[in-house]
Amino acid sequence: MKIRQRTWSKRAAVMLSLVAVTLPIVTNVTTASAKKASQSNVAALLQPHEADYGYVVDGYHHNLDNMTYMTPTTDPVIGVINGFTKYWRDGKVVDRAMIDLNLAKSAKVTENRSTSEGERSYFTDRRDLRYNLISGLGPYAPAFSQNANAQTNYTSMPSAPLPADYSPKKVTWASPDSKLGALVKLVNVAEGSPYSGINSPKHYVAMPRPYRLSTAVKPLPVIKEIMAHAKPDSFDLPSGHTTAAFDSGLAFAYALPQRFQELITRSSEVGYDRIIAGRHSPLAVMGGRMTGTAIAAAVLNDPANQAIAKAGYQAAQSTDLLGSKDTTAQDDFKNYEKNRKDYRYRMTYGFDQTGDTHQAMRVPKGAEVLLATRLPYLSATQRRAVLFTTGMPSGYPGMDDQEGWGRLDLFSAANGYGAFLNNVTVNMNAKKGTFNAKDTWKNQIGGTGKLTKAGSGQLTLSGANTYTGGTTLKGGTLQVANSQALGTGNVKLTKGTLALAKSKVTIRGQFQQSKYSRLRLSRAGHLTIKKTAKLSGTLKLTQGHLKKNAKLVTYQKHTGKFTHVQGLPKGWHVVYTQHAVKLAK
Predict the structure, then answer these.
(1) Shared-domain flag, residues 323 and 201
(2) Tens digit of pLDDT for each residue in 393-431?
(3) What CA–CA distances, in Å, run from 138 to 241, 259, 332, 423?
(4) Contact 105, 281 (CB under 8 A)
């Protein structure tokens, strides 16, 4: 294949000035989806959409390195990334403007890479694809490395470029016969399955690597000789490292959901590292996220892998890993806001929505398995609703595949619903532990449905929510960590505790509390009820400054009184006025 590198380089250089430096503001499909769902059958909205190839989770066994079998209808993994053939197909450019922009983004990253980014991208390049995910374990990484016998022969970056034929003796990344062998086997199945390869889709698109199209894309110096002598058919899209990062990362995240968002952020970082090294372009990395996600879901849904998945989860939750947390260990992913910002940016790499922006969200068949351990208290249908209401808007390059793999925003989905399409009941059993006992939903939840919290566990709402259906508490604890967390509807406490973690909380509808329930707030807190309040049960006041005549609860009007008031020192009590419950002494 003849590549006109100089021509591409000039175009890429011109496009550099067009690359946005700041992160794009990416909005979810929540509002539009919720509005549409309120007028439609929710069950129909959540039904999987069959692609020309069927469904990845049913047909991923057809993804073989067989060049005579590669079409979007015969190989589902090719089908997932077929949208990118609008820009490059079978070794030929189709959309020059998009390819120029893709190269410009690649060049910009390699031009601005820092020393630390270069070193990280070197290790990502050379280490075993599965080993790359260990850093996402953070404080659990030392225990994993020790109890899984994890190893690599790349521990430092050389000062001079490696020779083109450099090939050290391979080592096993982790041992399936170790204490954490069951977890190792799960990751091996996800990444090492004969159906997880991406040779067929690479050759179907046949898009050259960015450094071969543009001299503005600067290979990482330490591996430039290796890159220069790579085989001509070592193609760009989809990125193999990114594919492996997501199928391995999601296998790890399935087993250790306590690090779900950190692990998939590391998965996305692996893709970014490939751009830093000059190995891959943003479009290739986006395609790798899609293929890796689809393959992970297929592996976890495969009946042949159910025992392996269960054993891997149990191994991760054992004292050999979960019980061996090292708080002194380096954690590159401890900053939640940075993780969220990085992950969301790497979904689109700042590309504009050049396609149809009005496509309805689709949730692929079997995708709900990816949240099975992160949101274990939700049903499969509920997890599909979470994926539906947190999905990305349509129109981004290559992401509008027929099933919907490209638009899944797993980072946001790990934060719970983006909207209540209908009435949602959450039943959490604290005895089951993990997120069954305690979880936090951080999204800003919209929609017209009602939230009912049941069971013994604790659910925290920390978003500025706008759902209109109201909130009912039937058991356990519902903690309010945002002044607008309870949406705009009525709030009813039947059993359990409504705990106000914010000093000021507003209920925009009516408030009703039964004698079997408890309202907990700080002595200095304030609950504003915009409409009427029906009071009963227990008012539990926690530590806080006491101020005579301070208003604890205000309302338009009220009936009844709290049966019990706890947490006040001797001599203090509450009084009820026409519009408030006040502290008195």
Answers:
(1) yes
(2) 999 999 999 999 999 999 999 999 999 999 999 999 999
(3) 21, 8, 7, 37
(4) yes
- Structure confidence at residue 13 (pLDDT): 46
Average pLDDT of the segment spanning 143-153: 97
Token pair belonging to 566: 């706890």
| C-alpha to C-alpha distance for 91 and 94, rounded to whole angstroms | 10
Q: Give the residue-averaged pLDDT of 549-558.
A: 96
Check whether residue 338 and residue 444 sit in a common domain.
no
Confidence of residue 232 (pLDDT cuts 50, 70, 90): confident
Q: Encoding tokens for residue 311?
A: 């054993």
Is 190 inside a domain boundary? yes
Q: What crossing angle do the helices spanning 115-126 and 260-276 adopt, rounded to 10°?
A: 100
Q: Span 298-327, mean pLDDT?
A: 96
Amino acid at 68: T
Tokens of 186: 């799960």
- Write down the pTM of the prediction: 0.93
- Sequence-distant (6+) residues with CB within 8 A of 62 are 53, 69, 74, 75, 76, 195
How many structural domains compose the chain?
A: 2
Token pair 């090492």 is at which residue? 192
Percent helix / strand / coil, the chain, rounded to 5:
40, 15, 45
